Amino acid sequence: MMTEVPNPATGQVEHRQALMGANAVEAALHAAQAAFPEWAQRSLDARGAVLRNVGAALRARRDAIQQVMTAEMGKLKKEALAEIDKCADACDFYAENASKYLQHEPIKTEAQSSYVRYEPIGCVFAVMPWNFPIWQVFRFLAPTLMVGNTVLLKHASNVPRCADAIADALREGGVPEGVFGVLHIDNDQAAEVIKDPRVAAITLTGSERAGKSIAATAGSVLKKCVMELGGSDAFVVLDDADLDKTVAAAVKGRFDNAGQTCIAAKRFIVVDAIADAFVQRFVEAAGKLKTGDPNDAATTLAPMARQDLRDELHHQVASSVANGATVLLGGKPGEGHAEYPATILDGVQPGMPAYEEELFGPVASILRVRDETDAVRVANDTSFGLGGSVWTADAQRGERVAQQLQCGAAFVNAIVKSDVRLPFGGSKRSGYGRELANHGMHEFTNIKTIYVA
Ligand code: NAP
After folding, report:
1. Is there a single domain that holds both residue 27 and residue 88?
2. Does 360 share its domain with 333?
3. For ligand 1, which residues put their CB under 6 angstroms from it?
4. What is the pTM of this model?
5. Do residues 155 and 164 lie in contact, with contact meaning Cβ atoms separated by under 8 Å?
6. Half-sphere exposure of residue 239, counting CA atoms within 13 Å on the CB side?
7. pLDDT tens-digit map of 275-293
């Protein structure tokens, strides 16, 4: 079977990807298992040297990788290059810090010696999304390879050449055969891979729908999984917020990557006293965003990654409007193949898709609230719990609100971001488990107790 990959900016099919057959999948599983003992036994310095070479290979290939990312999922050239650089830096970071994160942790007991050590577990199967087609993979891959695990990647079906570009960089960096493999497979084949005894654990970054299916399959064979799922992050604007900074952050936080970011600000929860001023300036600033060719430096809003996703987003907008939301900006599909303009909806209320669901595209929802207490209530009135941000002139007040937000990461006067130094992951239906920092590095280890009486 062939999967067609149209260019989101033009609609032209630029690549057809064949699915792998059973023999090729079997060979990849065998290779991952065979490669594990030698890779796991290498010293951290030796694995770190390979990781640094991978980072260098990414930097050396950045222009070619950018072109593939832009052709496959429409990412702006500037955003794609920044993403590749972030991945290269992550390779260096984990090469540098793995020994600190993985060192034995002594625990005082009555024993002569008791401590925790972090051991690799084998092959981790990664199911990844298209929205940050390189970063989502490296965010998990760099720490996992440093731990000593092997990896099989099933990437989203609209970014097959991104998956191959990652494999090329890893090969060039000296990652041994079998330590990393790409599986071009469908979701039924993925379920068989999850159940295969040679796979030790699973990590998914993707939608709630995929999460339920993959976690159920993993559960049926009692395998650990990490779930990085969707979000509908609150962007709480308190009455004393600095509007210049807040509006600039709101535009960036909602519309970068065409709004297709799990931790994008999606619900703008604005206290009444400042709401009109904020909304007016937000609409003005977002109205300046320019759609067009993602390779053109003048384009500031990328097309969405696929036409079906654009249509799904528009359906959510139309249904919210039919239920009483007001369109302040945009609100209709653009002319390009998968283009959607910057859109702002006001008067968003419970029951509307814009309130209840994740809007995975360039649409901002305005939710007006009475005061700080009401803002916290509305921010937490969601099934998601990925990130959230608070905007205020008073950092202590911001911290107090941030502590009350039910989510994996709450930022004050800063856009929620992923950062190799900070743990990343969700609460509620945004998933479980963590990536990045020491917490992420420990997810796919055997946290083993040693006790010497
Ligand atoms: P998606 O449709 O769930 O796809 C993600 C991956 O899961 C793809 O590789 C997809 O493969 C696969 N998949 C889908 N259904 C599956 C199933 N039943 N069994 C096995 N694999 C399955 O999500 P997406 O549209 O690519 O990404 C957008 C979603 O990801 C949003 O909800 C976003 O918030 C979330 N996300 C979360 C994070 C985070 O860190 N929490 C980060 C980025 C994105 P196919 O393409 O072959 O269907």
Report:
1. yes
2. yes
3. 127-131, 136, 154-157, 187, 190, 205-207, 209-210, 213-214, 228-231, 262, 358, 360, 386, 426, 430-431
4. 0.97
5. no
6. 9
7. 999 999 999 999 999 999 9
